[in-house]
Design brief:
Layout: E1 4-5, E2 8-12, E3 22-25, E4 30-33, E5 37-40, E6 42-45, E7 48-55, H1 73-98, H2 103-116, H3 119-132, H4 136-152, H5 157-178, E8 192-196, H6 201-206, E9 212-217, H7 225-233, E10 237-239, H8 244-247, E11 253-257, E12 262-265, H9 269-291, E13 297-298, E14 304-311, H10 317-322, E15 328-332, H11 345-358, E16 364-367, H12 394-400, H13 402-415, E17 421-425, H14 431-450, E18 460-465, H15 468-472, H16 474-477, E19 483-486, H17 488-496, H18 514-530, E20 534-536, H19 547-553, E21 557-561, H20 565-572, H21 577-588, H22 593-607
């Protein structure tokens, strides 16, 4: 975050003619001086919105603390049980209302419900009450705070995210004990831009999404729960702003630019006019996007590529087709392992079949489970690893748990009768792991045959390219792969030694770093030399600024969050492949990220009428 001086900011210029008064040169950037306030954060959901700010700042209620007598312990415990039961009933209602959204979102309430009713949590409350002899509100707050602090201090990103769940649950119980009625975001009666320090999953799921036009949040990253949820709802959002709630007042007019990752506070007339024009252009462009739904992703000079969707839940398959997806390039199966009992073979089979049926004759690529690392799941004891992102995760975990792995493979094989299914193995580091995975696949096929369970004979099997070792041996891996899919999120993380969930260093995770671009080129070339397609399912694939570059590098398939599909297709249909190839050559010759970014922005300005 750049410093604030007398309510004004020195910031990187975000748009041509966006109200700057003077220009300052520095070694690294060009800065523009604005009389209005502008804060910069992380773009997590695209779109431009102008509107009025609503500050949703929940004051922490003052928790009373006083001593109680031994005789009143049972009475206090009874109050806790009643409050927990009330919170559980509220969560059940929320869970039911979330069923029409997605199983993952419904599962968030399910997890909260398990926490409210957790016998161990109740035991800790009872034990603390009987040893401290203090009022129950204070006991609940103290126990929850200690648990949250342990989670926040965890080196594991998944466990750190669970601290918000503990806060959500304890807030519900304490609110009932104190008789506090919370303002509900479901009750909004006018259009607003929501400004918050942080937002709990339950707030996002229950808020009036027709009234919340954009989100500006102090905390969060691209991989946080808040980011994932607002993206799924198509709400423009900028997270990681740090100072939004300090600098923005209720009723301020804001511009939220979810593409550039900036929020402008009280824009001047010229800036507001420029952004109003951008909003209108976006509306017109949206109409053009809809008309592209059934058209192929083909360049002006005939280069045809595939545009697919990334899905987290079976329920998202219908939406993917509405956005014009030609298939599913990545179906993440992790949700099945997040809730105990859901990973049983029949449950997996039903989930995979739902997606395959919904996509009709379109291909569906199912990634075998990628848990571990920053996605620790109950029952898989890898959270105590010193370096979990370098440890027991993804294909390594699957290979070490053969029965679990073959259960998933059998479920996928059985679902293949419903349509065109592909299987993809994550985090492959070398040919030995790929051969082991293929061996287990053959065993799963044999088990299906033995039990009389049919499956398709035409299932393609691919390798995810996510770590430098896979890139450098891509020519070897291609010998036993039907396709490659580049997972750029992990590839960037491992190539540049950057924890993408760490807000202190995630600015270093540059997709146009020379090393990353060379890795992409090497991988795509290795695939083509073997005669197999090269796909991409990481965040890069859905970035419109990078689309011409990836085309020029020779990428065959793009897979992204479904809402990003229309814009990317629009760009593909408006460029020439030959021009994109020249752009890729120039980008590969760049020696610094800034140089490559300037090249791409300049190219877009010259070659794209609308981005």
């Amino acid at each position: 975050m750049l410093p604030v001086r007398e309510g004004r900011y020195w910031l990187k210029r975000i748009r041509k003619g966006a109200g700057h008064v003077s220009l300052k040169k520095s070694r690294f950037y060009d800065y523009a001086y604005y009389s209005m306030k502008i804060i910069s954060g992380i773009s997590v959901s695209p779109g431009v919105v102008i509107g009025k700010a609503l500050l949703f700042l929940e004051d922490q209620p003052e928790i009373p603390r006083y001593s109680i007598t031994r005789d009143t312990v049972e009475q206090e415990l009874k109050r806790f049980v009643e409050a927990a039961q009330g919170a559980a009933a509220e969560l059940r209602l929320l869970k039911e209302s979330a069923q029409g959204i997605s199983r993952e979102q419904e599962g968030i309430f399910g997890a909260h419900l398990l926490m409210v009713e957790d016998p161990d949590f109740h035991y800790q409350i009872k034990a603390r009450l009987e040893s401290k002899y203090e009022n129950i509100e204070w006991i609940v707050w103290e126990v929850s705070r200690e648990l949250s602090q342990k989670l926040v201090m965890s080196p594991n990103a998944y466990l750190r995210e669970r601290a918000a769940d503990v806060s959500d649950v304890s807030r519900r119980i304490i609110g009932r004990l104190l008789g506090i009625k919370r303002f509900s975001l479901a009750e909004l009666s006018e259009d607003v831009i929501l400004v918050v320090h942080s937002l709990l999953p339950s707030d996002i799921l229950t808020m009036n999404k027709t009234r919340v036009k954009a989100l500006a949040m102090d905390t969060g990253s691209r991989t946080s729960h808040a980011a994932i949820l607002v993206r799924s709802f198509g709400i423009p959002a900028v997270l990681g702003l740090s100072a939004a709630t300090r600098e923005i007042s209720a009723g301020d007019i804001l511009v939220v630019d979810g593409e550039e990752g900036t929020v402008i506070i009280d824009p001047d007339s010229e800036t507001k006019k420029n952004y109003e024009g951008a909003v209108e252009r976006n509306k017109k462009t949206a109409g053009k996007f809809n008309s592209l739904k059934k058209l192929p992703a083909e360049t002006l000079d005939g280069r045809r590529v595939a545009i697919n969707a990334n899905l987290d839940m079976p329920e998202e398959a219908g939406g993917a087709s509405l956005y014009g997806a030609e298939g599913v390039g990545l179906f993440r199966s992790e949700f099945l392992f997040m809730t105990p009992g859901q990973s049983a073979e029949e449950n997996q089979f039903r989930s995979y079949s739902t997606v395959v049926k919904a996509m009709g004759k379109k291909p569906v690529t199912i990634r075998t489970v990628d848990i571990g690392g920053d996605k620790i799941v109950p029952g898989f004891h890898g959270s105590d690893e010193a370096n979990p992102l370098l440890g027991w995760r993804a294909i390594r975990l699957s290979l070490s748990l053969p029965e679990m792995f073959k259960t998933q493979l059998r479920a996928i094989l059985r679902a293949s009768l419903e349509g065109k299914v592909k299987i993809m193995f994550p985090l492959i580091s070398g040919i030995e792991e790929l051969e082991d995975a293929l061996r287990f696949l053959e065993e799963a096929k044999a088990e299906c045959r033995k039990s009389g369970q049919d499956f398709s004979d035409h299932i393609e099997v691919g390798t995810m390219i996510e770590i430098p070792a896979a890139v450098m041996t891509a020519d070897i891996l291609a010998e036993k792969s039907d396709f490659f899919s580049i997972g750029t999120n992990d590839l960037i993380q491992y190539s540049l030694a950057v924890d993408r969930g760490n807000e202190k260093v995630n600015y270093l995770a540059q997709p146009v770093h020379p090393a990353v671009l060379r890795f992409l080129k090497r991988t795509i070339d290795a695939a083509h030399n073997r005669g197999i397609p090269a796909a991409m399912c990481g965040e890069m694939a859905g970035d419109p600024l990078l689309t011409p570059l990836l085309l020029g590098l020779g990428l065959d398939e793009f897979s992204m969050a479904a809402p990003a599909i229309p814009r990317v297709k629009h760009i593909i249909r408006g460029v020439r492949f030959s021009d994109c190839q020249k752009l890729a050559e120039e980008a590969l010759a760049c020696t610094a990220c800034k140089q490559a970014n300037e090249l791409l922005r300049g190219w877009a300005k010259d070659h794209l009428k609308e981005r």
